Amino acid sequence: MTDLQWQKSTYSPDSSNCVYVAASPDGTIHLRESDAPDVTLTTGPRQLQALITALRRTS
């Protein structure tokens, strides 16, 4: 696997509760949490956008 360039979410204010996101060259989106950096979730851009849109509607 290509080395991913992880970025901390701007909505993760402190260093102990951070969400990180990275994109693979093929467009796959990877998500991980700072407490378990070896565990990652993968999704596509459209699916992630749908999740973010749904979460914004509920907040």
From TrEMBL:
All residue ranges annotated as the DUF397 domain in the record: 4-56
Pfam families, per database record: DUF397
Superkingdom of the organism of origin: Bacteria
Protein name stated in the entry: DUF397 domain-containing protein
